[in-house]
Design a protein that fits this description.
Radius of gyration: 23 Å
Order of helices and strands: HEEEEHHHEH
Number of strands: 5
Structural class: alpha+beta
Mean pLDDT: 79
Helix content: 40-55%
Number of helices: 5
Length: 225
């Protein structure tokens, strides 16, 4: 396969990975939390959250078969109330995350995710610069930036996972069950695609290996670009 074809495939993978990570950062469906339903003809409070805000949904329960089970599914109709976490928007009411959970986890996950976006931007600038003739040397920094973006993505995912785990285990919260939602899956997708495409760009930028063991790199046939 020619080098030009390889780079086009890698650029497409980078695009998909970048869109996936950006989607994860700006949406708030990383995890869905549910309390246990104890009574009928009342509302239960399910919630979903992301890096920046928490959304609580009040679902009316009228069927006795839900008693003793978790509230939900979150797709059921109900009143939704979303609020940004107070440590990002001072003065707003964030209730649960400011007072009753590990605020440090959420701040860390958001900060690391922003670093991932920063590396993605730097890598994109290098890719755009490499499109000019004779600028192939920019593949190396681009590959490093995208690989770093992927590593930041998985670190952010792990920090958020620990945040959810500790929040469920806390006696100060009403939620007892949880599952990770599509924003979490987007972050995982971004991690895999960005890391692999970054490594791929680094490999593409390496000098062509001589076909014969007695051949030096300078004697090898020039690359077809």
């Amino acid at each position: 396969m020619k080098k030009e074809t390889k780079t086009k495939i890698l650029f497409f993978v980078i695009l998909v990975g970048s869109v996936s990570m950006l989607t994860a950062v700006v949406t708030d469906h990383w995890a869905v939390l549910s309390p246990q339903v104890e009574n009928v003809n009342t509302t239960c409070e399910a919630a979903h959250f992301g890096l920046w805000r928490l959304c609580k949904k009040y679902i009316y329960i009228e069927d006795e078969e839900f008693v003793g089970k978790s509230c939900g599914p979150i797709s059921l109709p109900g009143e939704i109330n979303c609020s940004y976490f107070r440590h990002f928007t001072p003065g707003e009411d964030s209730e649960i995350f400011e007072v009753k959970t590990q605020r440090e986890y959420n701040i860390s996950a958001a900060a690391i995710a922003l670093f991932s976006l920063l590396f993605m931007i730097l890598g994109t600038l290098c890719v755009l610069g490499s499109l000019r003739k004779g600028k192939d040397y920019l593949y190396k920094p681009a590959g490093m930036f995208f690989a770093f973006a992927g590593l930041c993505a998985i670190i952010s995912v792990e920090v958020m996972r620990q945040s959810v785990k500790r929040m469920i285990e806390s006696k100060e919260t009403i939620w007892i069950e949880y599952y990770y939602s599509w924003s979490f899956a987007c972050a995982w997708t971004g991690f895999v695609l960005l890391l692999l495409s970054g490594i791929g760009l680094l490999l593409v930028s390496m000098p062509q290996i001589p076909r014969n063991p007695w051949e030096t790199c300078t004697d090898a046939e020039p690359e077809q670009i």
